[in-house]
Specification:
This protein has 213 residues and is an alpha+beta fold. The chain has four helices and twelve strands.
Length: 213
């Protein structure tokens, strides 16, 4: 069986879905519920999520965020899925820290794009610095931030993706970071692509492995 996590957000008639597939047998993220929903207090946006348990004999390593928050007189919709590998310590760290690092950046309200890039990099550096405590795990990430129900900012690392559904048509909004598809770029920068025991097949991801940098 395959564990499927689906995050659906509807904004003014458009639906944004974030989907992750992973083999596992328990609902992760230490959530008290395997499904949930909510809506904006300031607009038509609403969301729902569902986690379906598989039967593979190893623990769930995926975490998610799905909520609306009020900050500085504005509403933010925060949505994310973190697909963990080789343990749940890194996705748990991302669940707790990534959005905080984005929102607390001094440029967030004037330049969200720059703040998201800076926060992704800052969080990656923090994970590497805490590698003795976090262990040998890693995680992909896909995040969506809805600002005042009007502007949606999407970012991802690894092969977790965001898909826009418009009138029944699926439009991929992110690029999967996979070694085989990015081999040329990796090798042009002096790197190499190789199968390594205990690793996972993403050209970019959050990881406490030093070789992921």
């Amino acid at each position: 069986m395959i564990n499927i996590l689906v995050l659906v957000m509807q904004v003014a008639g458009f639906a944004v879905k974030v989907v992750i597939f992973s083999a596992c047998n328990q609902v992760g993220g230490h959530s008290s519920s395997s499904s949930g929903k909510g809506r904006s207090q300031q607009g038509p946006a609403k969301y729902g999520f569902s986690l379906v348990k598989g039967k593979a004999n190893h623990p769930m390593e995926d975490y998610h965020v799905a909520k609306f928050v009020q900050t500085q007189g504005r509403e933010l919709g925060l949505f994310a899925i973190y697909d963990g590998h080789l343990g749940d310590s890194v996705p748990a760290y991302l669940q707790k820290n990534l959005f905080n690092n984005i929102i607390k950046d001094e440029e967030f309200w004037t330049d969200p794009h720059r703040s998201i890039l800076k926060a992704y990099e800052k969080t990656d550096e923090a994970i590497l610095s805490h590698s003795p405590d976090l262990g040998r795990g890693g995680s992909t990430a896909v995040t969506a931030i809805l600002i005042n129900g009007r502007k949606l900012w999407i970012a991802n690392v690894g092969d977790s993706r965001a898909v826009l559904s418009r009138k029944g048509q699926a439009i991929q909004m992110t690029i999967d970071h996979e070694p085989n598809t990015e081999r040329g770029s990796i090798e042009n920068r002096g790197g190499f692509v190789s199968n390594m025991p205990g690793s996972f097949a993403n050209s970019e991801a959050y990881s406490s492995f030093s070789y992921m940098k």
